[in-house]
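The authors assume throughout that readers already know how a fold can be written as discrete tokens. For illustration, here is how one protein appears when written out as sequence plus structure tokens:
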Amino acid sequence: MTTSIKNKMRKVMQLAHRAYQLKSSSMSWVECLKQAWQVVKLEAAMKTKVVEFFFMKMNGEVRQAFGTLLQSHIDYTPNGTGHAASRDCIRYWDEAKGAWRQFKAYNFLRVA
């Protein structure tokens, strides 16, 4: 297998394992794997276009987001040193807010 496929599979397994650790009472291992694959596919799609997707906020509210990782859409000037991303979070540029946002991968619901 090529390195990119191995890296993608590693990320899927890490996301699925973390989701299963946190949500084993409400999600089966198969559901966690499906969700992890959807998150990896979402990240790949955001690298090429603006994607509409939904996730559950920490307060239980469902949030609709229009996100991208496409450099031509990102209008941002760093103003600090930044900080390391959490292994559970997916970062994206929110087109509606015009700012960086993130959500927990295990709270992802679906792509519109």
Notes: The radius of gyration is 14 Å. The chain is about 35% helix and 25% strand.
